[in-house]
Design brief:
The protein has one helix and eleven strands. The chain is globular, with a radius of gyration of 14 Å.
């Protein structure tokens, strides 16, 4: 049974940092495109960071570009999201997702949720001002 397990969330003050982890089944992490999504209370879920299957190219939402960075540890089958310079608007439940597709080009389309089959339970991030 394929699964994704997130960890690393918590409460920080604005300007602080957190590193989220997404531990994946072996075949997911090596063969699938993966992304981090977040959902704030009362708002729709939005994609924030993406890594493409195959060439492992990354794409970030404008709201996090320059502050969030994806990395992968293939030995641990884990995807990381390093989040720096956190803002109160970064608050939300962060979910890791995986889909069996290769994005032809980087862009907002990589966050179309119908492309993702596996989802983790999420980890909460709270940023206070």
């Amino acid at each position: 049974q394929a699964r994704l397990v997130e960890s690393g969330g918590g409460s920080v003050q604005a300007g602080g940092s957190l590193r989220l982890s997404c531990a994946a089944s072996v075949y997911i992490s090596r063969s699938y495109s993966m992304a981090w999504f977040r959902q704030a209370p009362g708002k729709e879920r939005e994609g924030v960071a993406f890594i493409n299957a195959g060439n492992r190219a990354t794409y970030y939402a404008d709201s996090v570009l320059g502050r969030f960075t994806l990395s992968q540890d293939n030995a641990k089958n884990t995807l990381y999201l390093q989040m720096n310079s956190l803002k109160p608007e970064d608050t939300g439940m962060y979910h890791c997702a995986a889909g069996a597709f290769v994005a032809p080009r980087a862009g907002p389309g990589v966050f179309r949720e119908s492309q993702y089959y596996y989802w983790g339970q999420g980890t909460q991030v709270t940023v206070s001002s």
